[in-house]
Amino acid sequence: MLPDTPDVVWEVPLAHAGLGGIAVSDKYVVFGDRDHDDFQDVFRCLDAATGKPLWEIERLAAAALDYGNSPRATPLIIESSVICQGATGNLLCIDLRTGNVLWEKNFRDEFPLNAELPWGYCGSPLLADGKLIVAPGAPDASLIALDPTTGELQWKVAGLPPSHGSLIVAELGGIAQIVGHDHKTLGGWALKNGERLWTMKPHSDGDFNVPTPVLYKNSNGKQRLLVATENNGVRSIAFDSVDGTPSETESTSMKLRSDMSTPIVVGDHIYCVKDFLYCLDSSDLSEKWRIRDRALGDYAATFATKTHLLVIGKGQLLLLRADGTKEIISRCKVFDEPQVLYSHPAICQNRMYVRGEHQLKCIRLSPDTPLPDPNHDTRN
User: Fold this and answer.
1) Are 287 and 253 spatial neighbours (Cβ–Cβ below 8 Å)?
2) Sheet containing 301-304: which strands, arranged edge to edge?
3) Which of 57, 199, 253, 290 has its CA 20 to 30 A from that of 281?
4) Rounded CA gap, 308 and 352, in Å?
């Protein structure tokens, strides 16, 4: 159960609301921010136990982007270093302990675009098979793989500008591949060399392609790809072929048209927020129910265990059972004023790190709060 009011371990004031998620370990909390004058990216690292500032790195990043200029990407912790990415293309590898910059690049300088990005670079860096995968979106470098320790280019592939969402890695049809959106299409790229394996153009144009694709297994134990966008609804795609390409779109539903929230799959149920909290049947995408609540808006982040669902709405946490039951068990008001939390929170051990419009809070979760198991992927 959630308490009515949070057990706040520490909180720090912030000058700006944020868009990018928070990365945590048992020692460090890392997030992207902006300076007071909104001219520079500021990548900050705090002590996870106390909230004390450990280091910060500033880089010039003047812009006038929709939804503000804050970094969109969630930092990526890799052992003793962290990869940070800003909305204007700053990409840095930073030593977690010292704050020393180990290497850095700027997408616009090294991989020039031929298109405008009104929301900037949004997708979070991805580590797969020892490669750091990022999406500069340049005509000759739509997707690139870097050595995460040196920043050395390992491969690049031509293509379209980037989407506003993140990529995943999956083995589909026996082929290890990077899966996600570019500016206009869904696709898969071979992990070993970036070769484009398949392209799926949506029925309706104009998607912003923000939600992350989700890999899961349906009720028959078959691996599927779940894709949600605002103009094309939610789709379940099968990969039964041996060459890593889609064999068919099994199910489509226009009941859920998520423009920002990424669905989460728990067993036979799919959950996602778009003004309502939706519960869909994972076998055919039919709607089981929807809940309207004052804490729910256009976007909300979700966590799940095998048995419970935690939804982070407008400054509140909502706890539900993940068995298809249409009931909010308990709620916790994290911030006094309602506010949309675009920055995805993070959970480490029994602590949750939540970024609001003016503060970042570390909350101690009670012993009976179901916590996501880092070794269990609820989407499979």
Assistant:
1) yes
2) 301-304, 308-312, 316-321, 328-333
3) 199
4) 16
293, 313 Cβ separation under 8 angstroms: yes
Which residue(s) pair with 328 in the sheet? 320
C-alpha pair distances (Å), 37 with each of 15, 62, 65, 69, 236: 9, 10, 15, 11, 44
* Sign of CA pseudo-dihedral 237, 240, 243, 248: negative
What is the token pair recorded at 27?
């020692």
Sign of CA pseudo-dihedral 244, 245, 249, 252: positive
β-strand partners of 144: 134, 156
291 Cβ neighbours under 8 A, 6+ residues apart: 276, 277, 326, 328
Query: What pTM, to 2 d.p., does this model score?
Result: 0.94
The C-alpha atoms of residue 308 and residue 271 are separated, in whole angstroms, by 11
CA dihedral sign, ordered 161, 302, 323, 325: negative
pLDDT in tens, 76-116: 999 999 999 999 999 999 999 999 999 999 999 999 998 88
Phi, psi at residue 244, to the nearest 5°?
Answer: 80, 15
Q: Which amino acid type is present at position 257?
A: R
For the stretch 207-255, pLDDT in tens is 999 999 999 987 777 889 999 999 999 999 998 777 889 988 888 999 9
